[in-house]
Write a structure and sequence with these properties.
The structure is a single chain. This protein is an alpha/beta fold. The chain folds into two domains: about 40 residues, no CATH class; about 375 residues, Spore Coat Polysaccharide Biosynthesis Protein SpsA, Chain A. It is about 35% helix and about 20% strand. The strands form seven sheets. The protein has an eight-stranded mixed β-sheet, with helices on both faces. It has a three-stranded antiparallel β-sheet with strand order 1-15-16, with no helix packed on it. It has a three-stranded antiparallel β-sheet with strand order 9-21-18, covered by helices on one side. The chain is globular, with a radius of gyration of 23 Å. The relative contact order is 0.15.
């Protein structure tokens, strides 16, 4: 232990982080060992380089922005829709499609304790977000007598709670051999002075490093090998909270296959030109999502010769990646974004302190940064009222009551009409 402590002291002195062991003499041997091991596994060079790079970077870097082509589902003929649908069904029936769900979040913004995917809509009977997704998968699995693999990325903090929830619900009567759980990685958070913070006197404060870690996390969990063994060709990646998101939409799958691109995304039309939502665009020659906060009016008003807006496609976290694309991305470290957050921390007296304003930086990777590693992307615009009803919080427009009503109208009532026929 003494040798380990001396090594840690040397590291912390080098990076000016000696405060992390200010309370080392107050810890039990187990706590002390855990803290020292935590510190030894931190990549201080990477973290502090990120901190410095954001502080010293140009806040408005020069970027060449060009429009990306998209297809509006509403403008397609019935024959074209049928063609894409049949192609998608063929791919599903042949066992070429898998589903990846990003479920690392907690339900705290909903006033709910537990993984967000375990949150239930107030319907009769109640139904959780995980069960809603599972029902979409079971529909195609049961209809076509195939095994559709479901890969669920959790955070380290909700991993066991998520698995327990599935076990308590008998995996929603879906073959548990087709459900795989894996965790995303963590990054320490850091304060405005470049100091790592403690969540307890014996624990460095870590946070999940964003949904863009999904590709490397899949490889680390050896799940890309599982995909290869199953002979998958396409993986759908989506979030856990959109109750209208069908992860096995045959039309979208068929459209993607016909486009010959390795990556595709569903998009929503940005109704409000002054909305600062990020938009799909070709950035510096590569498909990307651009932060249009500094040029909202200028960009949003541009149209082509037919009057179609060029920069109004926004992200709804519904993507298709070929397995080859997943393999490629699993060896790439995506760039980090910095978020300024409010987080409790251990102060100089060893007491837990809750700040009244943002006090720390969190570094996250996002799935959309993967697009720029390909020459093109297939964009498929869908109607918000048909396919987008996420649950974000209780007070905004994306609340549980709205989601429950839309799910009842667009999914449950549709299922009943099919049964009655």
């Amino acid at each position: 232990m003494d040798d380990t402590l001396n090594t840690v002291k040397s590291i912390l002195k080098k990076y000016n982080q000696k405060h992390l062991i200010n309370f080392i003499n107050e810890l039990t041997e187990t706590q002390k060992s855990n803290l020292l091991n935590q510190i030894l596994n931190i990549d201080f060079d990477e973290l502090l380089t990120l901190y410095d790079s954001f502080n010293n970077s140009d806040p408005n870097p020069t970027e060449e922005i060009e429009p990306l082509k998209y297809v509006d589902k509403a403008s397609l003929t019935s024959n074209k829709i049928k063609q894409y649908y049949n192609s998608g069904i063929k791919a599903i029936k042949s066992g070429k499609i898998g589903v990846i769900t990003l479920a690392g979040g907690q339900g705290s913004r909903l006033g709910f304790k537990g993984p967000k995917g375990t949150f239930c809509l107030e319907l009769e009977p109640k139904i959780s977000l995980f069960e809603i997704l599972c029902n979409y998968i079971k529909y195609y699995s049961n209809n076509y007598k195939i095994n559709i693999p479901w890969y669920i990325m959790t955070s380290t903090s909700n991993y066991f709670d998520t698995i327990n929830f599935f076990e308590q619900n008998n995996f929603f009567n879906y073959n548990r051999n087709n459900i795989h759980f894996f965790t995303q990685e963590n990054m320490p958070i850091i304060d405005i002075n470049g100091k790592l913070v403690l969540s307890e006197i014996y624990k460095v404060h870590f946070a999940s490093n964003g949904n863009g870690n999904v590709f490397r996390a899949l490889k680390k969990a050896n799940l890309i090998t599982d995909m290869e063994n199953r002979k998958l060709q396409w993986l759908f990646i989506g979030g856990v909270d959109n109750v209208l998101l069908n992860p096995l939409d045959p039309v979208f799958i068929g459209y993607t296959i016909s486009s010959k691109n390795s990556v595709a995304s569903k998009t929503l039309f940005k109704e409000d030109p002054n909305d600062i939502s990020w938009i799909f665009a070709r950035k510096n020659g590569k498909p990307s999502i651009a932060d249009c906060e500094n040029f909202t009016e200028q960009i949003s008003s541009l149209t082509d010769k037919k009057g179609n807006y060029l920069y109004r496609e926004t992200n709804m976290l519904a993507h298709l990646f070929s397995l080859n694309a997943i393999r490629k991305l699993s060896d790439i470290r995506l760039p980090y974004h910095r978020a300024f957050r409010k987080n409790a921390f251990v102060n100089e007296e060893g007491m837990k302190q809750v700040p009244d304003k943002p006090n720390i930086y969190k570094f996250e990777q996002f799935v959309f940064d993967a697009f720029s590693y390909f020459n093109n992307i297939s964009l498929f615009r869908v109607k918000k009222e048909d396919e987008f009803s996420p649950i974000k919080d209780f007070n905004g427009p994306c609340n549980p009551e709205v989601a429950a009503q839309k799910y009842k109208e667009l999914v449950l009532n549709k299922e009943k009409s099919h049964i009655s026929k």
